[in-house]
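Checked the freezer inventory, then went back to the computational side. Two predictions to log before the end of the day. The first one is the construct we discussed on Monday; recording sequence and tokens without edits.
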Amino acid sequence: MPEIVNPETHHEKSDVNVRALFKFFIIFVVFAVVTHLLLFMQFKAFRRMFRDQTAEPMTAVARPADAAVPPSPRLQPFETRNVGGQVNPPNTNTPVTDMEQMRAAEEQALHNPGWIDRQKGTVRLPIDVAKQLIVQRGLPSVGAPASGAQALPGAAAPTQTGAKP
């Protein structure tokens, strides 16, 4: 089979000029370092220059004398009760104390029994007791829908093995 020869194409005689790429990289890094050093020195000079100067307000509106205290109503406008049920004195509740009181009330509800609805006989059990009852009695089963009730559209009916068709 004869070889196809194109006299206009040649093999590349050299690869990329590594020396030129290396010079570019060195110049780029030196330029970046010098730029960062100049910016850092400029920042230091500005900080030293403007350290003792305070800016005048940019508005002609005078600041009220009691601007440190926000006007009423404040964040906690309603009376709050502590875990014991007593009303907290005014101006003693803060978001931090509110969070502490809420968590204490949740812990008390989680670990102590109590009535939810006495007329219906609904009680609140401690979490450990509730877990033990679930282990002993098992999870409550949900009753099957009434025969007249229709299934949701697109819902597959359960099969004997529980697998979907």
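The second is the one RB wanted added to the comparison set:
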Amino acid sequence: MNTTDLGRLLVKAYAALPGMPQPDEQPDYYAMLANVAARAAKPALTVFVATSDAGSLCGSVDFIDDMRQYGSGGPASDVTDAVGIRLLAVDDACRGKGIGKAPTQFCIVRARQLGKTKVVLHTTRAMQTAWTMYEGLGFVRFPEIDFRQGNLEVFGFRLDLADAVDGAGTAVRTS
């Protein structure tokens, strides 16, 4: 994995979101996005990468199996028996092909394999495509972990894994 190229993809994807603060407004945040190698060096964090059939870099997601290392700020790091998903990004050229959904579903399956009871994540109104996808997968608002990143409202979501999950990681309600 070329972490420099992946970092560029993340910065470009996030900076292109309408309503998202720009790199000059939140330089520390964008430096964190760009520094994939530093995040990947954390023992509880795995960066999963999505590529095209031709091997081109299409996107990534950070999977955190110990919420104490979630790293977003706010109270999410106190959530127990959970895994976290952060920093989902898809290259513009790969959008609309399920590149964001596939790694999210993979993370749900991985959480179940680890015996966790929930998956936690954050998103913003600027990330409307991701927000809609998360709700479609069964994630519900988790306002107890909402926080602000500068002027940006960041909204918590969770998926309770007590719900059945099919082989693709899609939540299926059992009640």
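For RB: The chain has a mean pLDDT of 90. The first strand starts at residue 45 and ends at 51. Let me know if you want it refolded.
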